[in-house]
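The protein record passed on below.

***
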Amino acid sequence: MLAVNDLSVTYQNNEVLDGFNLDLEQGEIFALLGDSGSGKSSALRFIAGLDDAAKGKVELDGRQLSVNGKHQITPESRGVGMVFQDYALFPHMTVDKNIVFGISDQSKKEQKDRVKELLSLIGLEGIEKKYPHQLSGGEQQRVALARALAPSPKLLLLDEPFSSLDKNHRNQLASQVRLILKKAQVTSILVTHDEDEANALADKVGTIQNKQLTIK
């Protein structure tokens, strides 16, 4: 489903990644570990199309997204969803409005059906008309996940999505999110610095050290 080949990233003459290679199958969950500044988020941003790179290729579901470090497909056209550590929910919108934000081109019935389906998937039925401030941190993050899944992305990128929660809640939510992603059968990459969190969520784990990716 995803192939990243020979990715190299340089910021202000500082090389952070050199020869990063990754292959993922349909529905596979991969966790990317590394210290702050090791290049974890840089890899995600390149795959998402948010940044260019010195060199590298990305292919998703047989389609080339980036070649020789330059983007060929815009971020919004890649079929890639993202979940961030700050949830990024719109505080003035109810849960259902947040979830359908990325599928506004669908009919009202399709949107309503998709909200119902996703709330069932994340185990939060009946909260459609609540606002983000009425939810716990874990509930907000699951809603953010539902919003990212709404357009049925081929790839989901999660950048430190549980870092604002305490360790017990992080590991519990990671296990819940794993079940959600497996039910949705969406290929996913999690960036984290927490090894327990990575092991709770991922099928396989990779570590970035000295600009290189090593997969366990």
Summary: The helical segments are 40-48, 95-99, 108-121, 137-149, 167-184, 195-201. The chain has two domains: 1-77+157-163+187-216, 80-152. The mean pLDDT is 90.
